[in-house]
Amino acid sequence: MDNQTILVIDDDKNILEIVKLYLNKEGYTVKVGERGDTALDIFHEAKPALVVLDVMLPGLDGWTVLHAIREESDVPVIMLTAKGDTLDRVQGLDLGADDYMVKPFDAKELLARIKAVMRRSFVNETERRIAVLGLTVSLENYAVTLDDKVVEMPPKEIELLYFLASHEGKVFTREQLLEQVWGFDFFGDSRTVDVHVKRIREKLGERDAWQIKTVWGVGYKFETARES
Q1: What is the end-to-end Cα distance of the chain in Å, rounded?
Q2: CA-CA distance, 140 to 123, in Å (whole number)?
Q3: Are 91 and 150 in contact (CB under 8 A)?
Q4: C-alpha angle 198/79/179, rounded to 5°?
Q5: Cβ 120 vs Cβ 113: under 8 Å
Q6: Are residues 84 and 16 in the same domain?
Q7: What is the pLDDT of residues 9-62, one digit of tens each?
Q8: Given strand 99-102, what is the order of strands in its sheet?
Q9: Does residue 31 sit in the same domain as residue 115?
């Protein structure tokens, strides 16, 4: 992609300097900020290809900034936090984060994650829409419609639904779904997948034509009536 600008928001100046150094060496243009209440202004000015966002920020916390970004953009976001518990990770992913790193971290690992997230985010546009028996899932504009009615979902629910529907009838383990949807470098808990599947089911309701089916002891698959 042409845009190689990365925005890093963190109140630790040492982290900003180290991350900026590594990213500059890789050819990225780096914009930085130290406060949550000015992060959106910098975001609008920089128009970054990816955002690295700390959770604990002065002014506004990272969750609030992430929510505001998701109100207007699907730009990839990697969250930085000192907290490592599963619920915190799930919260970030539910709000639309693409990856999650716990401090302290190695700058080389962050660089690898940035590259991985950007590879996943900028795929071939011609392969980003699928329609199945009244259900349409599009990654072109991150939209889901059911019987021509819009169904509101955060980005990761849309990506998970799209992935399963794109592989009709194929069973995936939770670990495979974490790898394919969140990326091999996301050190998540398999319960993250369960939470997202539950919420997708609640929003789409029961359908005879198709369903996300639990394969007990294995994982999940998207099944249509013509398979049964």
Answers
A1: 42
A2: 10
A3: no
A4: 50
A5: no
A6: yes
A7: 999 999 999 999 989 888 889 999 999 999 999 999 999 999 999 988 999 999
A8: 29-33, 5-9, 50-54, 77-81, 99-102
A9: yes
Give the residue from 121, 146, 180 where a domain finishes.
121
Same domain, 50 and 136: no
Angle of CA points 83, 33, 81, to nearest 5°: 5
Under 8 Å CB-to-CB from 165, ≥6 apart: which residues?
130, 132, 135, 137, 210, 222
On whether the CB atoms of residues 111 and 99 are closer than 8 A, the answer is: no
| Alpha helical stretches, state H, the chain | 13-25, 39-46, 62-70, 86-94, 107-121, 155-166, 174-177, 191-204
Residue 206 has phi, psi (to 5 degrees) of -80, 135
Vertex 202 angle, CA 199 and 206, to 5°: 135
Number of structural domains found in the chain: 2
Beta carbons of 193 and 177 less than 8 angstroms apart: yes
* Full residue range of the structural domain in which residue 149 is found: 125-224
- Tokens representing 125 are 């546009």
Could you give the angle at which helices 62-70 and 39-46 cross, rounded to 10 degrees? Answer: 40
- The pLDDT, as a whole number, for residue 212 is 93
CATH number at residue 70: 3.40.50.2300
